[in-house]
Backbone:
């Protein structure tokens, strides 16, 4: 616990923290003795988690109910972190629309960009600048296996996750010499309320557990630019990205997504 405080400081901001992976990150970091600023849209869920973590781990927990896609995100978060030394950022929030790209409204597709791309860019710049000036800190950007190639029926979501992967890898190199660790976590399908809400068809693909994904991501900080939790997903990433032609990988992703969601209407949010 002391090692984490010494390495990154005592405060962590977790974006998309109320349920699922964000909740798992919050629990894991509280267990390591760090104070938390939890951000998500639902104030009730945030406060319920905060009460539990304060009691269980004797850490300070603050909450901020905000839409991570709203235009004034920087100003809102800047006010929330005033007086805090936030040495670790975990950006987990995500929004997705499922189905043919042109069948969804432009506003929905733009919201994907606001939450999945603009949000992490804003917070990485706001908090990363201060970390670099202090000479220590860490940034975890949750991306996805979907961002490794084009994702038919998940086109804007997959593209947004590719953005996060490349952003994190670039910052991993840039900020390393300034004492800031950065990692992208390329998670596969994970057992979260958001995944369940998307109403996928039954599948043989194993689901990752949120606490496992959180631990793998945090343990990779300072070691590598990106990490894939789960042996099966690491093997899949190797095959899809190294062995198969690009067009084949895209076709495989398209068939798999259609099998999961054909005839369903789901918009996973986390």
Residues:
């Amino acid at each position: 616990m002391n090692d984490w405080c010494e390495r990154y400081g005592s405060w962590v901001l977790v974006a998309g923290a109320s349920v699922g992976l964000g909740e798992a990150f919050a629990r894991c970091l509280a267990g390591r003795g760090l104070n938390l600023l939890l951000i998500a849209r639902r104030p009730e869920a945030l406060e319920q988690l905060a009460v539990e973590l304060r009691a269980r781990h004797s850490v300070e927990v603050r909450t901020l109910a905000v839409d991570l896609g709203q235009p004034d995100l920087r100003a809102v978060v800047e006010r929330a972190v005033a007086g805090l030394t936030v040495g670790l950022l975990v950006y987990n929030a995500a929004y997705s629309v499922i189905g043919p790209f042109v069948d969804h409204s432009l506003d929905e597709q733009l919201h994907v960009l606001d939450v999945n791309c603009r949000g992490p860019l804003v917070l990485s710049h706001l908090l990363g600048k201060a970390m670099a000036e202090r000479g220590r800190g860490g940034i975890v950007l949750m991306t996805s296996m979907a961002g490794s190639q084009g994702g038919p029926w998940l086109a804007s979501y997959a593209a947004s996750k590719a953005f996060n992967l490349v952003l994190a890898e670039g910052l991993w190199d840039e900020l390393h010499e300034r004492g800031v660790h950065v990692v992208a976590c390329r998670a596969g399908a994970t057992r979260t309320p958001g995944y369940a809400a998307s109403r996928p068809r039954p599948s043989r693909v194993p689901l990752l557990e949120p606490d496992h994904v959180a631990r793998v991501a945090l343990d990779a900080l300072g070691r590598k630019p990106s990490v894939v939790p789960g042996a099966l997903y690491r093997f899949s990433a190797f095959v899809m990205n190294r062995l198969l032609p690009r067009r084949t990988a895209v076709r495989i992703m398209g068939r798999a997504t259609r099998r999961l969601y054909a005839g369903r209407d789901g918009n996973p949010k986390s």
Observations:
- The chain has one domain: 2-261.
- Residues 106-134 form the longest helix (29 residues).
- The longest strand covers residues 137-144.
- Residues 266-270 have pLDDT under 50 and may be disordered.
